[in-house]
């Protein structure tokens, strides 16, 4: 496994120390994942945990799990790391002598996971310096139109590939300050405690990060239906070898990022420009792929592909107005072990 690769998608904590209500909580979250996550972010803080037993504590923790996974995933860019961070937060909560002393469980868990994820990100940055080729986040994939995603991270704009790629350019402290405050609504005083800076310094970190994030986001993002249409046209142009048609779909300054992690053939650099990107993409599809399916990739229409050699790839797109500005291809097999969109389908 590569340093930044994903594992099975299951946390590696001690099974008998996981929350008792974990399976039930996951099932509830999968029943309506968008509502579960976004409603949880808007909900009032959890009441004090007075005289709770372990079952009640586990149930309270499960209610926060989708949000906590998003905190950790957006910080680390890895679902495996995210689940490990959330598992560690549960173990810390369980080891408290008096969990009833926590007056706001949501705040305690969010800052705890934020601190654990920040530590994990610091270690990951060192490993990424030795990473072969371009590093991309582990993608979150579900079947197109699926209402019951396997992932346990609520799929919305906060996990978009465009945002995660921009966040990767920030320092760990900037990334944490922006995410905890701007995305997850944690006060600057609490964020300061997580990153070990003063509240004033954290405000500056978040402000600088906010400028970078806004400059890297699409100015005029399309509707999901428009993006699905564009991705479908992209797939057709690649399969038909239509260079002109493909160039017409790409922004003149389009970028192609390709993450093979040294495990499979992939670009070692970022390709720029519609013509160059189109030529590379058509070279990839010179031999027809075994299978190509539309999927949801990090909350947006994308593709899951088995190429002619059977190598699995997940393709994410960033679209601004009516042109594709970025094509991000994850081919590192260690990051794709949870991708099952094509299995069992006709």
Characteristic terms for this protein:
7-stranded mixed sheet; 13% strand; 346 residues; alpha+beta; 47% helix
Write a structural description:
This protein is an alpha+beta fold and 346 residues long. Helix content is 47%, strand content 13%. The protein contains twelve helices and seven strands. It has helices at residues 22-31, 33-42, 54-76, 79-95, 105-128, 161-167, 172-183, 188-195, 199-216, 224-240, 243-249, 274-284; strands at 141-143, 250-259, 271-272, 291-297, 300-306, 312-320, 323-330. It has a seven-stranded mixed β-sheet with strand order 1-4-5-6-7-2-3. The longest helix has 24 residues, at 105-128. The protein is elongated and about 65 Å long. The chain starts with 21 loop residues before the first helix and ends in a 16-residue tail after the last strand.
Strand order of the largest sheet: 1-4-5-6-7-2-3
What would the average pLDDT be, to the nearest integer?
83
- The fraction of residues assigned to DSSP E strands is 5-15%
- The class by helix and strand makeup works out as alpha+beta
Helix content: 40-55%
Helix-strand string: HHHHHEHHHHHHEEHEEEE
Radius of gyration: 20 Å
Biggest sheet overview? 7 strands, mixed
Task: Give a brief rundown of this model.
The chain is an alpha+beta fold.
